[in-house]
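pls ignore typos typing on phone
S-adenosylmethionine + seq
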Amino acid sequence: MSHECRALILERIRQHGPLTFAQFMDLALYAPGVGYYASAMRRSGRTGDFYTSVDVAPLFGELLAEQFAEMARILTPDSRLRTSDDKDHPIDFVEAGAGNGRLSRDVLDALERLDPDVYARARLHLVERSTAAREAQRETLGHHAAKLMGSTADLPSSIDGIVFANELLDALPTHAVVGREGGLREIFVDAVGDDLVERELPPSTPALDEYFAAIDVRLAPGWHAEVNLRAVEWVRDAARALRHGFLVLVDYGHEADLLYSASHAHGTLATFTAHVVENRQEERAAPWLRDPGGSDMTAHVDFTSIRRAAQAEGLDPICLVDQMHFLMGLGLQTRLEQKTGTGREDVMWRLALKTLLVPGGLGTSHHVLVFGRNVGRPALRGCGRGRARS
Ligand SMILES: C[S@@+](CC[C@H](N)C(=O)[O-])C[C@H]1O[C@@H](n2cnc3c(N)ncnc32)[C@H](O)[C@@H]1O
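k done
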């Protein structure tokens, strides 16, 4: 498919001129039928291009279920005060960027055992842009498919419960910019014959300069960076839809002062092809132009701007904590102590655990951001060792 994706991108450029990086990334990942995510129902895992925590083991979903059960209890009136209506009060579980539904299946498998009351009241909504992935969701969910209230490309308009997303924000199309003596320049994708090339032009929108002004960042001349306006918009939309409950985002990224600093002077754009990661190592290197539609493309998330967007819509920040501490807070330690056997199952389990926790790997690169609306600022188990931010 990727030659068709390249042909589509070249045609757009010939018709409309250079594309912003965000427009290019949107076509490369999501163009119907030919984009990277649009043309397959699953892209991660051993035979894919990258791993997410969901690929490692059902354990990630199991531990998230522990956190969701605690949240569900906070969302449910005290049993002594409950009316019969409350007993049946449904709890929305909305997973965004759900792919074929594996994480939700793992969460529901665990909830069914852990908290049958919450399981009984769970109403599942899967939000996924790829039609190919959406079509596979019912089969993945198995008997939990009876709980599926909606499988859509957009968020439901009103949510009373828990919205969660694993590695969604990093996959949203981002603008790419570079600092110059005269101010900010934006990276566009242009065509020279049949080759795709990067071109620096004045910013396509004042929103890029405004973004940096809002977080008090100035890019030094020569520094590359990404500005994910879509991620900020997505959080705004999710916050508006959430009437009561929690928003839980798992992704890799940094606070703005670290993301936009000398330590990330080449920016954080990366492509993943068969588990090989390529970044911009020097001014002109742009591995993402080689095979658009055939490889994944991501950039790290700016947690500062995400938090600002959520707070501007009235959400309370509850915590930002690395995945290792989040999972430890949910009882991983105890499980580890119980699985000491030398049989294949226990050994595989411990290996999975290591991948989820290992410093420098998913455990510290990935962070969990939790926000709430009308829930106060509860001390959640997963946040127990985290830092509350305001
Ligand atoms: C990196 S994958 C992560 C999949 C899954 N959450 C996991 O952890 O394995 C990102 C997913 O988000 C989906 N996606 C991208 N933009 C989206 C949007 N605006 N709304 C919903 N899903 C989206 C992609 O199609 C893709 O399935």
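Residues 2-35+172-231+257-298 form one domain. The CA atoms of residues 273 and 313 lie 37 Å apart. more later
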